[in-house]
Amino acid sequence: MNAPAAASTTFVPLRLAGRSLTVQAVAVFLGTLFLAASSWIEVPMFPVPMTMQTFAVTLVGALFGWRLGLVTVLAWLGEAAIGFPVLAGGAGGLAYFAGPTAGYLAAFPIAAAFVGWLAERGWTAEGRLVRNVVAMLAGNAFILVFGTLVLAGMIGAEKAYTFGFAPFVLGGILKAVLATATIEAVRRGKISI
Description:
Blueprint: H1 2-9, H2 21-40, E1 42-43, E2 50-51, H3 53-64, H4 66-81, H5 102-120, H6 129-155, H7 157-165, H8 169-187
Antiparallel strand pairs: 1-2
Helix pairs in contact: 2-3, 2-4, 3-4, 3-5, 3-6, 3-8, 4-5, 5-6, 6-7, 6-8
């Protein structure tokens, strides 16, 4: 009796958890393609270009739910680790998991799972626009803070803040709003999935 009430307040449009393993595998594959494509969209910035990766990571979590969102982001990072050109600028390889981007990459699957978990608890449901924005902001903030903390261990706190945090705050906010707008468009049927 509680399940229908929970379903009505939840907005995970693909409802992949109840689908066949084949459908889930196809969704993960398509999700990794979406994540790769989002990585190739770059806005030139110093020292690192801003991409649409965090937008895609949070959106995959919200659309797929926490479990499959996590699996999808891990699969995409696995592709990157074996050298597929799926990261920013078409990069790939293990070096990115040990250098300045290591903390940000490590934060991606956690952020996707967290946003998916919030979506499954109604944070992206109809009538919850503020909570939706907060969920997306939380995912982006986690990535930025965790990545900056790891970077600080490599280059020092001041440089990490200057080069790994401050330049990306506004972009993170804009991407959170864009992800929320995308969820709203999906809900209203303006984007079919």
